[in-house]
Design a protein that fits this description.
Largest sheet: 10 strands, mixed
CATH class: Alpha Beta
Strand content: 15-25%
Mean pLDDT: 97
Structural class: alpha+beta
Distance between the termini: 23 Å
CATH topology: Amidase signature (AS) enzymes
Helix content: 25-40%
Radius of gyration: 20 Å
Number of helices: 13
Length: about 450
């Protein structure tokens, strides 16, 4: 299929399905058609030539205001240039077709946006897509585009991947440039791809690697392209137990166990003080996020999602001494976790404690205890992103289950290749796969 045909097919799917999924906030059809025509006129071979993709609306897209899921940002002037990762995707031949719905200012695990409406789960429209990259999960899971980009601060790539039954990559902190994206928590934000299969996930990841002086957090390591053509086993695999099995539903635990068996996991292991890591991640998230939005909170409080506004205000009231303790603990937890990788190549854990909840649902039942939904969807993702480890989220469809659920494949810093190899092996074995929607 040539680029024009691929793009027209994607635009037709968006026109047909987006009215119910609500994944897109803007469709860049004119731009996409022009790019596709230029690609078809060229005989240059490119790894993603003609592949349509879309991005969470916190990425700068030339000519559009960068919404970051908010009402306030709609008053910003249009971006004058594309974000670095969009530029790199298009340099590899991919074609941008639009911007995607998201939770306000990325402070969300549900995919429910009060300004644009919720992005919906492609397998059950009454359920959540996950957040904050909900539109990205919905668009890829629903087959509107094969690849999308999102962000992950505490779990916002891995949660939508789990709920929407797709593959997602949260790379090592600093691996991919964040230049040209609206921030949430500078010391925790990651950008990364979603895809319906591991091959496309790898192609997107390889295309986006590289240093970038416009992002001071971006590594100066040279690009390290991944090849998953040899996806054989041979990895030392351990299942995270203790904290990472507490509160999980039977479906979440069964998914991890199925992946563990397929990868030949050896004895389980624990991350010491994972619960405290989650608490420290919350402290840093709340305080850094609040500092970013103080002026908006003072001048336009009524224009926030009340749930987001109240959490940011609470973050602004956290004593500095507690933040200092959280950062000190963060260093200890990273060092302790890295020692676990002396005896393992990858670690396994649930992405979410349960499959996608119903839209509007406000509580979860975790081990018989009723807890608030919003803060507890990310209980297994936060301790991992807290220290910047690379993770591939893989979708599992268990027998007789109507909804997918995701498993985290966690690797040591800069070893995305190991997690991606494991994901490719699971896909080839039929354990993890995207299931096209009816």
């Amino acid at each position: 299929m040539n680029a024009v045909a691929a793009v027209e097919a994607a635009l037709a799917r968006i026109a047909e399905r987006n009215p119910v999924l609500n994944a897109f906030t803007a469709v860049t059809a004119e731009r996409a058609r022009a790019k596709a025509e230029a690609l078809d006129a060229s005989d240059v071979a490119l790894p993603l030539k003609g592949v349509p993709f879309a991005v969470k609306n916190l990425f700068d897209i030339a000519g559009l205001p960068t919404l970051s899921g908010s009402r306030i940002n709609r008053d910003r002037p249009p971006a004058t240039a594309d974000a670095t990762l969009i530029q790199r995707m298009e340099a590899a031949g991919a074609v941008l077709v639009g911007a995607l719905n998201m939770g306000e200012y990325a402070y969300d695990f549900t995919g429910e946006n009060v300004h644009d409406g919720p992005s919906r789960n492609p397998y059950d429209l009454t359920r959540m897509s996950g957040g904050s990259s909900g539109g990205s999960g919905s668009a890829v899971g629903g087959g509107l585009v094969p690849i999308a980009l999102g962000s992950d601060t505490n779990g916002s790539i891995r949660v939508p991947s789990s709920f929407c039954g797709i593959f997602g990559l949260k790379p090592t902190f600093g691996r991919l440039s964040r230049a040209g994206s609206f921030p949430f928590v500078a010391s925790l934000d990651h950008l990364g791809p979603f895809a319906t299969n591991v091959r496309d996930l790898v192609l997107a990841y390889n295309a986006m690697q590289g240093t970038d002086p416009e992002d001071p957090f971006c590594t100066d390591r040279p690009a390290e392209p991944v090849d998953v053509s040899d996806a054989a086993g041979g990895l030392r695999v351990r299942v995270l137990d203790g904290y990472f099995r507490q509160g999980a539903t039977a479906q979440a635990l069964a998914a991890v166990d199925a992946v563990a068996v397929a990868l030949g996991a050896i004895e389980p292991t624990a991350l010491p003080e994972a619960a405290r890591a989650r608490a420290a991640a919350y402290t840093i998230t709340a305080t850094e996020g609040a500092a970013l939005h103080l002026d908006r909170l003072r001048t336009r409080p009524a224009d926030f999602d009340p749930a987001v506004r109240d959490r940011l205000i609470a973050g602004a009231l956290v004593p500095a001494a507690l933040v200092a303790k959280a950062q000190k603990f963060r260093r200890w937890f990273r060092d302790s976790t890295l020692r676990v990788f002396e005896d393992a190549d990858i670690l396994l854990a649930p992405c979410t404690p349960c499959p996608a909840p119903l839209l509007g649902q406000t509580t979860l039942d975790l081990d018989g205890e009723t807890v608030p939904l919003r803060p507890n969807i990310g209980i297994y993702t936060q301790p991992i992103s807290f220290i910047g480890l690379p993770v591939v989220a893989v979708p599992v469809w268990l027998p007789n289950e109507a909804l997918p659920i995701g498993v985290q494949i966690v690797a040591a810093p800069w070893r995305e290749d190991l997690a991606l190899r494991a994901a490719a092996h699971l896909e080839q074995a039929g354990i993890c796969r995207w299931k096209p929607c009816p």
